[in-house]
Design brief:
The chain has 113 residues and is mostly helical. It contains five helices and no strands.
């Protein structure tokens, strides 16, 4: 039993028809949602129209390059998407070498050396 959890979890329920717009709304920061999608409307205002059936369709319909969820923070990602300049994110194939080690500092048998 966890009496004092270190991690808070929120669970959101949705109908199938509302899932995509709720997902777009809940996975982005407030700053991202308030950023301008074009000269007139914010990302949030575009989402509220609910005139799309997928994330990809939402971005395409609003003349924005797809913004990966990892970038929906409210920086310059919307401007980059308008200019079709969203960078390719790190992929698993880009990773090389040892990414996780155990040592005598933790629970391993060997020092870092």
């Amino acid at each position: 039993k966890l009496r004092e959890p270190e991690l808070q979890v929120k669970i959101h329920f949705s109908s199938g028809s509302d899932f995509i717009w709720k997902k777009l709304s809940l996975e982005a920061s407030k700053a991202h949602l308030l950023s301008l999608a074009d000269d007139k409307e914010t990302i949030a205002e575009k989402i509220q129209k609910k005139d799309f059936t997928s994330e990809e369709e939402f971005f395409e319909k609003n003349q924005l390059q797809f913004i990966p969820v990892e970038m929906r923070e409210g920086g310059d990602e919307t401007l980059l998407a308008r200019e079709n300049k969203i960078p390719t994110l790190l992929q698993e194939a880009d990773l090389k070498g040892i990414l996780h080690n155990h040592s005598t500092y933790s629970d391993g048998k060997h020092s870092l050396r």
